[in-house]
């Protein structure tokens, strides 16, 4: 759809009702609902009328009813205003309206836009209704004088800049508002609808939501990750609430291979639906990379173990030390499993292209293996100097763990500059504070050994060229710049990949070494086999893996119940951060969080980041601007 009858999106008026040549509309606007067709759409930033015969008053009424669900009532301007607007529109559509009602609607709309305290009230709640009255006034006037208007059903969806940036689409403004009102338990329940590991994610998430926060352009982003943690920590302090049991049990059995975030999320949602769930886990503990890839100083294992315990108490059967070496469909079918979800993660290290890396030298250990051994209790003997190769979070975790283990010198070699480092900025800062050294624009080319023991690496200096497919500038070796670095241990930490030997010849594998699935349903070429998480996406974040589990649970449910899977509404292709002018917003400093002193940190694996107190969390939550974006269409 390249042209519409009318659009007022973002204040840009495109009116094709005059009979003149059609004007094009930003393709992102009519396509914001993906492939879903519509005759008319009303959203946070205006309205789009695809069919000239659309019932605009009915659409405006439907929008107001949905907006009322989001109005918190704290300032009363928004909620009372919407109630009055709804009553006036209902009267008009019922044939009981008066001409002055139109003027009254305009007056109330302007009042709500000017006087509401939050972004939702000032802009999203009534902006498109104002456009409807302004540009379709005749449609409202025809309802006056006893003529009844038609109503029709409409669909609705809600997002927000932070919500849209979150891979799991958590209702961030919703759970923050509950914290602001000292309703930590209700906040946790809302979080758990899409994030069943709130204590884990509240500590280890890469928080893309914070990058999208509207406050970024005003003062400093809202501490969204820490507020999620606050809800989880408050629950633990109160004695830890149990998860709600399914209302009814179903006979169908589902097998899950892998108890990482994707597998655990799928198990939770499937159990809530009543399905019988068994998880086969290769390691002696659950959590995937959260368990064997993130050190205790970032994520105390007691937090993860508690949240897994809740899922087990819900009825999920997790069988540890149960590695599936070959996916035997006949055996699984005989055991009664009607659907299988593959969520094995990506635990195998990738090569760095260094001569001697496959020789099995003592002191050359892959980063994922190093962290796994540490998590599973294997003794790691500290040596003189350790060199870590890489610039991501795994490299930082390896380096910071080595400091805590007692290595005398810890140095990271990275082939680009700090600007291109993929690790979280706070992880880099904390590593530097603790004494980790970083050498930039350097890459190892061969391992130096004494007999069978590592004694160092020959390296080459790099320079940056044009950006590659990742968007970062490509590192290029500088000829003749080779030099040697002494090291008693080398830990390459440049990435991981999934080990898919257990499904060899059963499901197709992509050129990236991941399982190929239908991107909508996450179903493989086998009718009842689904896959998700790192074994499909490649190494990603915990929250992305968790969302794959959320999605596959709905997909498996649709499959087992014989329904067509309905993907959620996606707002890709349109800037949900864009908003008409909302007036002045006061700057407000972010609540500070205390960190363990760097000298104390390296003495052990105690958690570095302190939690917010309940009072501090409520104060931080009060900074939220409630930037909901509502869309109603039909």
**Terminal-residue CA separation:** 16 Å
Biggest sheet: strands, sense, closure? 6 strands, antiparallel
- What is the number of beta strands? 21
Indicate the radius of gyration in whole angstroms.
Answer: 28 Å
Would you identify the CATH architecture of the largest domain? Up-down Bundle
The coarse overall form would be globular
* CATH topology (fold) name of the largest domain: de novo design (two linked rop proteins)
Strand order of the largest sheet: 2-1-4-3-21-5
Low-confidence stretches: none
Beta content = 15-25%
Percent in helix:
25-40%
> Any idea how many domains?
4
Mean residue pLDDT: 93
How does this model look, in words?
- This protein folds into four domains: 148 residues, NADH-ubiquinone oxidoreductase 51kDa subunit, iron-sulphur binding domain (de novo design (two linked rop proteins), Up-down Bundle), CATH 1.20.1440; 110 residues, Fumarate Reductase Iron-sulfur Protein, Chain B, domain 2, CATH 1.10.1060.10; 133 residues, 3-Layer(bba) Sandwich (FAD/NAD(P)-binding domain), CATH 3.50.50.60; 148 residues, FAD/NAD(P)-binding domain (3-Layer(bba) Sandwich).
- It is of the alpha/beta class and 634 residues long.
- It has a six-stranded antiparallel sheet. The protein has a five-stranded parallel sheet with strand order 8-7-6-9-20.
- It contains 23 helices and 21 strands.
- β14 and β15 form a beta hairpin.
- α1 runs antiparallel to α2.
- The mean pLDDT is 93.
């Amino acid at each position: 759809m390249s042209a519409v009858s009318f659009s007022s999106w973002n204040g840009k008026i495109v009116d094709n009702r005059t009979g003149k040549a059609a004007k094009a509309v930003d393709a992102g606007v009519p396509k914001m609902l993906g492939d879903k067709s519509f005759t008319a759409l009303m959203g946070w930033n205006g309205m789009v009328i695809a069919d000239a015969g659309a019932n605009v008053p009915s659409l405006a009424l439907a929008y107001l009813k949905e907006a009322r669900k989001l109005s918190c009532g704290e300032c009363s301007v928004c909620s009372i205003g919407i109630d009055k607007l709804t009553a006036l529109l209902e009267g008009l559509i019922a044939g009981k309206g008066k001409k002055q009602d139109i003027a009254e609607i305009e007056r109330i709309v302007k009042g709500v836009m000017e006087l509401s305290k939050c972004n939702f009230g000032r802009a999203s709640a009534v902006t498109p209704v104002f456009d409807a009255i302004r540009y379709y006034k005749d449609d409202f006037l025809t309802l006056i004088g006893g003529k009844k208007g038609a109503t029709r059903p409409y669909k609705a969806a809600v997002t927000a800049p932070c919500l849209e940036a979150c891979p799991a689409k958590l209702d961030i403004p919703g759970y923050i508002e509950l914290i602001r009102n000292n309703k930590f338990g209700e906040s946790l329940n809302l979080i758990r609808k899409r994030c069943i590991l709130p204590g884990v994610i509240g500590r280890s998430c890469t928080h893309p939501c914070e990058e999208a926060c509207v406050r970024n352009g005003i003062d400093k982003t809202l501490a969204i990750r820490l507020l999620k943690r606050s809800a989880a920590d408050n629950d633990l302090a109160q004695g830890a609430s149990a998860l709600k049991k399914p209302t009814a049990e179903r006979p169908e059995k589902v097998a899950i291979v892998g108890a990482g975030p994707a597998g655990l999320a799928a198990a939770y949602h499937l159990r809530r639906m009543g399905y019988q769930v068994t998880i086969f886990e290769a390691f002696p503990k659950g959590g995937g990379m959260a368990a064997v890839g993130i050190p205790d100083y970032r994520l105390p294992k007691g937090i993860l173990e508690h949240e897994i315990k809740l899922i087990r108490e819900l009825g999920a059967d997790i069988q540890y030390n149960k590695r599936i070496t070959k996916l035997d469909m006949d055996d699984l079918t005989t055991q009664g499993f009607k659907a299988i979800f593959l969520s094995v993660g990506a635990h195998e290290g990738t090569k760095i292209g260094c001569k001697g890396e496959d020789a099995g030298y003592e002191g050359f250990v892959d980063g994922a293996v190093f962290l796994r051994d540490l998590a599973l209790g294997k003794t790691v003997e500290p040596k003189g100097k350790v060199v870590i190769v890489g610039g991501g979070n795994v490299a930082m975790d390896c380096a910071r763990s080595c400091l805590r283990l007692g290595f005398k010198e810890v140095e990271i070699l990275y082939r680009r500059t700090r600007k291109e480092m993929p690790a979280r900025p706070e992880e880099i800062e904390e590593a530097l504070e603790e004494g980790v050294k970083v050498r930039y624009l350097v890459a190892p080319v061969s391992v130096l050994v004494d007999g069978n023991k590592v004694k160092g690496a020959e390296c080459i200096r790099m320079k940056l060229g044009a950006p590659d497919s990742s968007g970062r500038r490509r590192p290029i070796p500088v000829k003749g710049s080779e030099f040697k670095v002494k090291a008693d241990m080398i830990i390459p930490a440049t990435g991981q990949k999934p080990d898919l030997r257990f499904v060899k010849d059963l499901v197709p594998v992509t050129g990236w070494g991941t399982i190929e699935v239908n991107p909508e349903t996450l179903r493989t070429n086998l009718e009842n086999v689904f896959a998700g998480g790192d074994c499909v996406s490649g190494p990603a974040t915990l929250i992305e893996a968790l969302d794959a589990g959320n999605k596959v649970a709905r997909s498996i449910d649709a499959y087992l119940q014989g329904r067509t899977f309905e993907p959620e509404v996606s707002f890709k292709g349109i800037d949900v951060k864009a908003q008409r002018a909302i007036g002045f917003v006061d700057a407000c400093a972010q609540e500070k969080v205390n960190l363990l002193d760097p000298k104390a940190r390296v003495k052990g694996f105690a958690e570095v980041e302190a939690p917010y107190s309940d009072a501090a969390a409520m104060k931080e939550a009060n900074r939220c601007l409630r930037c909901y974006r509502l869309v109603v269409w039909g």
